[in-house]
Amino acid sequence: MQRAARKGGTGPVLRWLAGRTGATVFLMNSAGTPAHPPRAPRGDAERGLALRGARELAERRLGSVAIDQDGLTCIVLPLDGSRGAAAPLLAAVVPRPAPPELPLLLADATSVLSVSWLAEHTRRKQRRLRIAEAGTREAVLHLLLNGHTSAARQIAGALRPALPAMVRVYVIEGPPRVRAQLVEELTDVAEGAWIVPCPVYADHLFMLAPGDGAPARAWPPGLAAACWIGESSAVPLRETATGYAQAFHALAAARGSSERQASFAAGPDLALAIGPAAAAWAEALLSPIRTHRARRAQDPDSAELLATAASWLSFCSRATAHLNIHRNTLSARLTCIQELLGLDLHRLADQAALALALRTSAAELRPPPEGDAAGAGETLPTLDELLLLPRVGAWAQQQFRPVTAPDVPACVAETLTTWLRLDARIGPTATALSISASAVRKRLTRSEALLERSLLRPPSVIHDQWLALRALDLAEPTEVPRHFAGLPGRA
């Protein structure tokens, strides 16, 4: 019995007892429900007899019970538990006459089964605690990415460490099979950091480290050799979603780096480049959602629709994992958003407009003064008019400068711009360029390395690239430098 318990616990011991005695041996709780199912009683007579034995044992407070009924003998003995753990009962049902050695053998087995059951019970409790803690940390991550900073702080207060005011976000990409091991290694090395398996990508880890000091560089040897690491700039906790996007773009640059890690290369933001006029335009575009009121209690309100739009623009179909909703729920919300805004979210142009409006709203830019034409509400600027601003043209040129450098093959920019004009679809792009789909992906991967931004895997910079291309298309030829004037398809 001790050998069986060391090899497998209560299951092998119960099977050994059943083979030795010919009885149906099982564990059950005080209500008669089997607690260990491998050889649970099958007949009604066996179950009824075991339940009667459990009741007799509880009511009379006996050390053991033996009952004979309908040609069966049932022996019930309690196992030893610990404080706070209700141990089960050991029951054996055998046809009469029962073997004379059965009661003594069962009594000897209770000591081994008690230790084995208590060890298994402890492991189950520890596993439930780990699952509960992992779920709580993932919930905190969801809240931070969706902008609910106060709720995230309250929940995180029950765990350790506390969430800092300034954070750096790290996205670590590695084999999914070693993700649990990486979490343990990082927990030992990265003191004061939050480490959560990414709910969107199975091969990613999300690490939230304090951003007040220097960036973390003391990675475990196995992590540095087998994974890629993207690091964001130091951002306020309320801008964790921005930090995540930065780390994700840095990860795209790390894949092409020999060091296998990269920091985010900051660039100008389009919303800030446009200025206050973008705030008035964004407010007008998002107004139908902000004023939306749910007709039924189960319908999404304006806040849920805005969160869904932001998540879908960042993660596409993986927004279901980000928001913890069903794909049908996501589809219904997207339909509602399109109807309210009058947009077709299958078109990259409409996606880019909505993404810019949401980002402008998150930046909390102030609208122009009331004396301004845009602020007076008479003639709000269109998106094309905003993209015609001189400072936007300079921003657009900077977006494409890495892929239009003299040492970069012209086919890289040609593939990128064609892909953007065809709503970021690989198949039509391959047809338009008369190349294979794999060749399109290879050229776009080269563009990712040059831009140091993610293109093929969301969250990507695709919306910014489309807006930059549109701005260059709208600009006067005299305002576009010579090396940008050759972008394929430019009007």
From TrEMBL:
Residues 306-359, 413-471 form the PucR C-terminal helix-turn-helix domain. InterPro entries: CdaR-like_regulators, PucR_C-HTH_dom, PucR_C-HTH_sf. It comes from the Bacteria. It holds the Pfam family HTH_30. This is PucR C-terminal helix-turn-helix domain-containing protein. It comes from Streptomyces yokosukanensis.
